[in-house]
Amino acid sequence: QEGCAAGSVLLLLLQERGALGFERHYHVTDPFIRRLGLEAELQGHSGCVNCLEWNEKGDLLASGSDDQHTIVWDPLHHKKLLSMHTGHTANIFSVKFLPHSGDRILITGAADSKVHVHDLTVKETVHMFGDHTNRVKRIATAPMWPNTFWSAAEDGLIRQYDLRENSKRSEVLIDLTEYCGQLVEAKCLTVNPQDNNYLAVGASGPFVRLYDIRMIHNHRKSMKQSPSAGVHTFCDRQKPLPDGAAQYYVAGHLPVKLPDYNNRLRVLVATYVTFSPDGTELLVNMGGEQVYLFDLTYKQRPYTFLLPKKCHTSGEVQNGKTSTNGVSNGIHLHSNGFRLPEGRAHVSPQVELPPYLERIKQQANEAFACQLWTQAIQLYSKAVQKAPNNAMLYGNRAAAYMKRKWDGDHYDALRDCLKAISLNPCHLKAHFRLARCLFELKYVAEALECLDDFKGKFPEQAHSSACDALDRDINAALFSKSDNAEDKKGGGPIRLRATGRKDSISEDEMVLRERSYDYKFRYCGHCNTTTDIKEANFFGSNAQYIVSGSDDGSFFIWEKETTNLVRVLQGDESIVNCLQPHPSYCFLATSGIDPVVRLWNPRPESETLNGRVVVDMEGASQANQRRMNADPLEVMLLNMGYRITGLTSGGAGGSDDEDSSEGQVQCRPS
Question: Where are the WD repeats (predicted)?
């Protein structure tokens, strides 16, 4: 009988696990995404709704607003369960349920620099923390730390709170001002759901920081025990974080673009960070730029940090023969796992694409010929996902990126060129496009070396019109009076040092930046320049989709693996800031400037066409790209409905095809 009982329990566990696996895999699917529509509007706030938070079960939704109130909703029945004034005197920016509190304890952070802890059962504020000196932008909690939470504020501090202690003070966990100067602002933070010892922080600038909380605590404990420990025992100000306690991530092209963005008063700041459900990926909404996904398991160095070095004369390249030193085009790729084949170069036999992928490639080529660059990119990406070892697809997509010229496109093109070359060392067009990409990314000296290597590998192209044109561009840039000391000379990574004392960058900070890792995927189409609380999130327990708010009042949904935009919905009259997916259903809560919370789910097929669907996704994306690069006057005109011309698509040019000649370089490769 005991054996039967044990068997029954095991069977039940397996059934529950199977049901959970089924739910996780199918609760957000492509048909559901394409039927996603507005279910309800929850009204109760009198100001902008700046933050949303589901409880663990998904039967409660908390919201915080400019009206300094928090509301707890029953979203499944569209009911307001509780509304209370939080005691804050300014806009609420973050709201969190404390884990293991039975949904009784709610934490809020606001623009009054305060963090408040509320007991919902009695509608009272039970703790008020006033240790920050600037706006509190985010609160983070962790199941493994049931009485502990963290805050990020614009005073540059990450503070840690322990509700088991009677003290109404918090302690500094991380002080960004020690590394980046007094002007740095912390904007967002989140804890890894699978390993609560890891905390991700977004702040001013393009770098995202990942910290090991346990290592920091151990370091602080050892400092306390040291006879020379000072007054600040929790955050010693004489000693930096211990080695290995911090790892930085950055989109590889952004440090190079920073001076240009600063000159145009274009601010880069991470407005939201979040981990994937399995804790292996980090998603960042980069204000002033795009949305980026970083792979925390298979990390890679930024390509533009690996500056080229001259090939040794013993490994000369002639007539398509590569050198034997593992270097191609002067780009060292070992750190990226892209080590190019040594020895004689040979054209790798291209595996014939299956008929359905061949059709997709032809459709992409046709879109390219019609100068529909985004459509071409999305079709090539779809094919790349199914045939990740086809050099031609990468080469073609690189050409489309170079034609579109959106922010970050030349860097993605550079990555595709390197991948194409690693798969086929004699991919002529990829070699040439690589030189053009380096030039467009302001790596002028490296572009010249790359072009020289190209001429050595393909001497028949050395005097083509395309080569001559790029050669002229490079030499003009090299001798231009506009070149300055910030231009990279090779031989070391980029170093960004501020000039003023208040925003000076420490040596420790520069080392951490130089050790940064690059992104895996980039998502384009939205605009994030107006508010600094705009979110991007994984949608689906398997993180199949990416969602983000936008300054145009829409929210955008991309396929995670292809990065293709699949849905745009109008979510606000002005700006969508918050998007919080339900923990187990295909159910999404959004908010923004409007004083309402909107709930979205798949609508019945019997319903008429959803009026909130943005049909022209390409047009919306192009408008947002213009908006990101516009000056304030142009943004105002855009908001008033005037059309602004700009960001032209680029000149005509052909993509590669299996039957096309690889012996000629495109005359206009960019």
Answer: 42-74, 85-128, 539-568, 569-610
CATH architecture under which domain 262-302+518-643 falls: 7 Propeller (2.130)
**pLDDT band at residue 327 under the 50/70/90 scheme:** very low
Contact between residue 391 and residue 348 where contact means Cβ atoms under 8 Å apart = yes
Full-model pTM: 0.85
Q: Which residue has the tokens 């070391």?
A: 492
Most confident range (mean pLDDT) of 22-36, 82-96, 323-337 is 82-96
d(CA 188, CA 200): 8
Give the pair of three-digit tokens for residue 460.
């028949």
Distance from chain centroid for Cα 617: 20
Q: What is the pLDDT of residue 661?
A: 33
DSSP calls for 592-610: ESSSEEEEEEEPPTTSPPP
Q: What's the mean pLDDT when you consider all of the chain?
A: 83
Q: Which CATH architecture has domain 51-205?
A: 7 Propeller (2.130)
31 CB-near residues (< 8 Å, 6+ apart): 602
- State pLDDT tens for residues 657-666: 533 333 345 4
Are residues 351 and 390 in contact, defined by beta-carbon separation less than 8 angstroms?
yes
Tokens, residue 351 = 């595996």
Every domain range in the chain assigned CATH 2.130.10.10: 51-205, 262-302+518-643
Cβ neighbours, 10 Å, residue 576: 29
Inter-residue contact 587 to 581 (CB < 8 Å): yes
CB–CB of 522/413 below 8 Å? no
CB-CB contact of 40 with 558 (8 Å): no
Q: What b/e sequence results for 235-245 when a residue is b if at least 16 CB atoms lie within 10 Å of its CB, and e otherwise?
A: bbeeebbeeeb
Question: Which ranges in the chain are annotated with CATH 1.25.40.10?
Answer: 355-481
Please work out, in degrees rounded to the nearest 5, the angle formed at the alpha carbon of residue 614 by the alpha carbons of 610 and 615.
95
The string of pLDDT tens digits covering residues 476-490 is 999 874 545 454 444
Which residues of 521-631 form beta strands (DSSP E)? 521-523, 536-539, 545-549, 554-559, 565-570, 576-581, 588-592, 596-602
CATH homologous superfamily, domain 355-481: Tetratricopeptide repeat domain (1.25.40.10)
Contact, 366 vs 377, CB < 8 A?
no
DSSP bridge pairs for 484: none
Residue 455, CA distances (Å) to 310, 465, 665 in order: 14, 13, 12
Whole-number Å distance between alpha carbons of 527 and 523: 11
CB atoms within 10 A of CB 610: 14
Q: Which residues contact 502 (CB under 8 A, 6 or more apart)?
A: 181, 182, 183
Whole-number Å distance between alpha carbons of 294 and 198: 15
Rounded Cα–Cα distance for residues 258 and 264 (Å): 10
